[in-house]
Design brief:
The protein is of the alpha+beta class. The chain has helices at about 1-20, 25-55, 80-85, 100-105, 135-150, 205-220, 225-230, 235-255, 260-275, 285-305, 310-315, and strands spanning about 60-65, 70, 90-95, 115-120, 155-160, 165, 170, 175-180, 185, 190-195. The protein folds into two domains: about 1-170, no CATH class; about 180-315, no CATH class. The two termini are about 30 Å apart.
């Protein structure tokens, strides 16, 4: 969460930093900086939501979710300028509502709409940290998750007095976050974190979704915990990367994408980036990776004819022993 909050803070205060000392900030530019970031974030959240909803029946860990991301203006570099640019009096507002989520279905939970209460709690009353501090926003998202788990819904209160109750859907346990000034795509065990300069943003949605599915696969297959137990030897990392590649088309199929997009992503990405972001001795060559993916697609299509689902929990062949190194 630190990465995401810091970069949005920088975006929000960028125009004012460039202004001469004492000059009035250009609020239109401030707002555009925030909204430009949100457009990238929206695309990531839309694809991520589709993947975690479609694969929820097969995930070992699920949670109730409404597809809502919040923003806390107190975490920006210049909160007062961000508030003025967005015409807000408080700090909390909608960041994104993922396409197809319960929040988006309501229609009025839109980016930058000011939020005053979560359930009956005003998050603005919680102590805020210094600029760029992200802890209060994490607390707000965790509070929403807890309300959904304990009460089965949450009521959002808005600055205009409207209160909206939102009921969740089960999703695979993961969050998706955008970071600035980076081309990286990584998973940390609980979150998929994508850099705003990640080249996959330039691809059509199915290929972009394939890239996100690769990182999500690391979380769903619990690779970080396995590597923690079994050490990050080159061979071990390579096996987990191969599993993530092979699970990509399964995740895409359950999300309603053509699983062939996983292969198409690798053959599009690989020739340009094989020596960099996704390669090294911890990865197979892009052409080998494409072959492994294509073999999975054949399995998926056969299962789809018989079962009308791609049940990777039952049919996916592991490269590693998922219980290796555990105490039980």
């Amino acid at each position: 969460m630190l990465w995401r909050r810091t970069i949005l803070a920088l975006a929000a205060c960028g125009a004012s930093i460039a202004s001469p000392l004492g000059a009035q900030p250009d609020l239109a530019n401030e707002r555009e900086a925030i909204e430009a970031f949100q457009r990238f974030d929206q695309r990531l959240q839309d694809v991520g939501w589709r993947l975690i909803v479609g694969n929820a029946p097969f995930c070992s860990e699920t949670l109730p979710a409404i597809g809502l991301q919040l923003q806390d203006l107190a975490s920006y570099g210049r909160p007062e300028i961000a508030r003025a640019a967005l015409s807000l009096s408080g700090d909390f507002a909608v960041q994104t509502a993922a396409r197809g989520s319960p929040s988006a279905a309501i229609g009025s939970i839109t980016s930058n709409r000011e939020i005053t209460t979560l359930a009956d709690t005003d998050p603005n009353q919680w102590a805020a940290g210094e600029q760029y501090a992200w802890e209060r926003l994490v607390r707000a998202h965790d509070f929403v998750d807890q309300e959904l788990r304990s009460k089965g819904s949450i009521t959002l209160g808005f600055a205009d007095g409207e209160r909206i109750a939102v009921e969740p859907m089960p999703v695979c346990a993961s969050r998706f976050e955008l970071m600035n000034d980076s081309k990286r795509a990584v998973a940390d065990g609980k979150r998929v974190v994508i850099g705003i300069e990640f080249p996959g943003f330039q691809y059509e949605e199915p290929l972009f979704a394939a890239a996100i599915a690769h990182e999500l696969a690391h979380i769903l297959l619990q690779h970080r915990a396995w590597l923690d137990r079994n050490k990050r030897k080159r061979r071990n990392i390579r096996l987990t990367e191969r599993e993530a590649d092979r699970l990509m088309p399964w995740l895409l199929a359950n999300a309603g994408y053509d699983p062939q997009a996983a292969h198409d992503f690798m053959t599009t990405w690989g020739p340009k980036h094989d020596g960099g972001l996704l390669r090294g001795r911890t990865h197979d060559g892009w052409d080998e990776r494409a072959e492994f993916i294509q073999a999975e697609i054949a399995i998926i299509r056969g299962l789809w004819e018989d079962e009308e689902k791609a049940d990777w929990a039952a049919h996916f062949r592991r490269e590693i022993d998922p219980d290796a190194g555990s105490e039980s």
